TrEMBL record:
Keywords associated with the record: Acyltransferase, Transferase
SUPFAM superfamilies in alphabetical order: Glycerol-3-phosphate (1)-acyltransferase (SSF69593)
Pathway as given in its UniProt record: Lipid metabolism
Name listed for the protein in its UniProt record: Phospholipid/glycerol acyltransferase domain-containing protein
Organism: Aquirufa nivalisilvae
Chain ranges of the Phospholipid/glycerol acyltransferase domain: 17-129
Biological process according to GO: phosphatidic acid biosynthetic process
Amino acid sequence: MGWEMKGNIPRNIPKSIVIVCPHATWVDFPIGLGVRSLLNMNIYFWGKQELFKGVFGWLFRWLGGYPVDRSKNQNLVNAIVDIYQANKYFHAALAPEGTRKDVQELKTGFYHIAVKANIPIIMVGFDYVNKWVHINDPFYPSGDFDVDKKVIANYYASIPGTQKSWIKNYLA
């Protein structure tokens, strides 16, 4: 598809949560699968449970998907932390924007998962302008989201074409 990759996920890190921004189009998914193939790593992905129903549900599972129930009546963060704690080696990706629309702030579940599971966040940026996938060095959150959200926003602000409302809000 003409995309190139900058950066890598260090092999000595057994667990991480990979966040990918911007979540701009359905093309994000095949690009992500291509990057995972180039990295030659098992990187699972969290996806809304609706993707795993119907005729294509088997495909998303086969591709490494984990369905998540985003309803308000459960503690999704703790359920995902349990999955990390039950595995010696586990990397999973998600789009913290939660939608392809412009958002004012990120969903913060990824952050709480990283803090509770004591794992790094790997920030991946899709540069649609230059067709580059940028993989940042592991970021270990401090536990103070108000401080760390500026680090996250600064990283994504450096990716061409990623001028989203949440970045401006976090840097304000």
